[in-house]
Specification:
Elements (H helix, E strand, L loop, with lengths): L2 H16 L5 H6 L1 H7 L9 H11 L6 H16 L5 H14 L1 H4 L16 H17 L8 H16 L1 H4 L9 H7 L1 H7 L9 H9 L8 H15 L5 H14 L11 H10 L6 H16 L5 H6 L1 H6 L9 H11 L6 H14 L7 H6 L1 H7 L11 H8 L7 H16 L5 H6 L1 H9 L8 H8 L6 H16 L5 H6 L1 H7 L8 H7 L8 H14 L7 H7 L3 H4 L9 H12 L5 H16 L12 H7 L5 H8 L11
Helix pairs in contact: 6-9, 15-17, 29-33, 34-37, 36-37
Length: about 625
Amino acid sequence: GSPLCKERVHGYALAVSENALANAPLAAACSADISKHCAAVQPGGGRVLDCLERVARTRAQLAPQCAEQVLSQMAAELADPSTSFGLRRDCSVEVSLFCKAAAKGRGLHSWPAPLSNASAGNASDTSRGTLDCLRSHSRALGFRPACAARVASLTRTEMSDSRLMLLGGQLSHCREEAAQLCPNETAASKSLPVAKRYTGLMQCLQAKHAKLPEGACRVKVRSSLRVLAYFPTANSPLLAECRDQFTAYCGAPDGVDLMEDDALLRCLREHRALFTGGCRAKVMSIERMAHNEMDFNAEVSEACAVELRTQCRGVDSRQQLSCLERMGEVRAAKLAPTCSRVLQGFKERAAQSVELMGKVSSVCREDYELLCASASALQHPGASIQCLKDSRGQLRSKDCKAAVLGLMAGASRDSRLDAMLQSQCGRDLFECTRAGVLPGEGRLLKCLKEKLSKLQPSCAAQLRKTVHAEAEDVRVNFEVSKACEAELHHYCASVKPEGALGCLELHLGGSDFGAPCATAVRATMRLALQDYRLHPQVKAACEPTLPRVCPTVPPGEGAVLRCLLDGEGSGNLTDKACARAIRQAARSAFVSYTPRHAITDLCDDDIGRLCAAPDAARRAAALRGAPGPLEESS
């Protein structure tokens, strides 16, 4: 048609969007529903249509003929969102700020200018591009709540009826892929009511999106998934499966249907472990997508938009979270505070379940099924990952072991990434932070270690696992691996990681052995000598012997180590491997000497008398057990 005709048609569409009563078919079909549900609503300003759409959202029953007319009106607005009075009213500023490029050529950047250029097809495509643009920026700083609510409302409407999905072309490009990947759903769709005809088919394609070949169908299906990731209130299958649980856990006084998307996303993340059955499966599916690919992560995408644009440009969507994490580790100052906070929250939540760690889940699949099938994040956040950590010596896959050691190293640096430790030691960690200890760089973990003997039993038991692992393998000991990088390269390059701590101990007296490394090594040794269960070599070699040699000795305060050492000296300890391990532990006790330790306390007086002066040679001789004027009792 002529430009003038197009302009008048557009003007009429905008007018009926502003005042639904100007739409004669809708006014006639919805007269009873308007009287029943919207009697107090003043006509004009898009208010009557908003009222009817809100009624439909809350599952109140509109008369069939009214529902069809409302659907038709919404379909027109979705086909060309520039005809939506509410969108133009609420989002003109956002279009100008965020979507000028998408709106170019349609006058959308200067709403409410009339539309006069471009063909009808191009108009619809460009206008829908503006709606997609608004969706992608709906959580950006400066995006007003009224516009966000309007965009969310249009999105929910579009996803509520499969006929509206067709307007975006999601399925028109997928005929071959649907027939190949979803034959059952394709066949079933032919017998379904028209409103639901394509819903199951689209859900099937979304579930199998990773198998879709490159092309228009894949782009459209991924786009629909991204919409659901940003607008969970538009995810009808999710709401149908989880309505009761969302109502119970998400604090929705007006009902789940009226929740805002941000609030529902927060609830999904914060209460994930509480959801059960089919609801849990759908929530975890959403979470896996958000943790594995930035395209489906609404919060981090918006909070870190600048960093993604400047530092991770060109990086695949599946690698962008890793890109941001590397920035945070090596260039913390480059992450804005909001980005750093949101990213940290996602890292902490990922630490609660193997399912949310794409790489670990992939390389550890067989080992997990063999060793940890009974462990579940549902039983306790972090239980599945803790099982892999505890079973690290039995892992068959080298890639899995490397991935698990990487998790342990990360948790050694930042204890917030150890979900089990956070749970068991919450009160003690709070005391550390209240005392001014900042998270990161191993500080909170060091604080816990310093008061190990005073911790609650459950916390102490969990911390012992960490301390034992750090004494066993320096790769998961942040303090030692950071302080001793040069020493490990110089002295222990050919030594396996499991023996690196012992190697460092042997070279502590080296002339070029750095003081920070020596401090870190001695701190690890002292901690391991507090309790035989923290000393990997003694625990492995001597635990079978304990019932015979030290049956009633409590494990803490080095008492078992002293008992074993006495047994070795008296000949009562006959196990050669245990004898070697306890002699090595005794040597370590003198190298990392601490007064009043159970192993070295007999020498406290002599060490204080002979080694107090700053005579390095004499002190070294005494600590190494060289002959000297020691008291006979030693």
